[in-house]
Every structure is written in structure tokens, then in C-alpha cells.
Amino acid sequence: MLLPWMKLATDTTMLAFEAQTVIWTRLSRAAMGQGSTAENLLMVTEKVTAFAEAAATLATGGSAHKVVKAYRKKVRANVKRLKC
Predict the structure, then answer these.
(1) How far is the C-alpha of 72 from the C-alpha of 16, rounded, in Å?
(2) 59-64: long-range pairs with CB below 8 Å, 24+
(3) What is the greatest pairwise CA distance in the chain?
């Protein structure tokens, strides 16, 4: 019974670290004048989309584990795309 909660805690912590990497990279690039309008728009739209997907997952009986897993997949894709 404890193992699923430990996995969720670990995945959530990793999500926080990965998200901070993406935030730091984007803000650093913006501060140096290397950011783009497209990237700024993407920052906002992907958050709205991710929230809608998470809400739909939970509304249809999905678990917090499934939501965190989906968020981590998207954040890792950003890390790879931005080459953090």
C-alpha cells in the first residue's frame, strides 16, 4: 500500500525538478534576448492544454499517477527540445 504513494511522491518530485529546468532555460533565453514570440506563446498554450487534459483524465476516473506521468512526458519533451 505504501509503494504506490512512494512512486507518486518520487514522480512528483522529479516533475518539479524537470519543470524547473525548463522554466530556467526559457527565462534565461528571454533575459538574454534569445526568446521568441512562438516560444512565449507555447509556454502559455501548453499549460492550458495540459490542465484541460489533466482535468479530463481525473473526470473520467483517471488517477493522480496518470496525470503526473503525462505531465512528466510533456516536460521531458520540452527539456529535450530546448536541450537544457
Answers:
(1) 9
(2) 64/8
(3) 49
pTM of full prediction above 0.90: no
How far CA 34 is from CA of 31, 43, 75, in Å, comes to: 7, 15, 20
Q: What is the percent of the chain with per-residue pLDDT over 70, rounded to a whole number?
A: 98
Q: Roughly what angle, to the nearest 10 degrees, separates helices 37-59 and 2-31?
A: 160
Compute the chain's Rg from CA coordinates.
15
The region that residue 70 occupies, defined by phi over 0 for left and psi between -120 and 50 for alpha, beta otherwise, is alpha
CB 25 within 8 A of CB 39: no
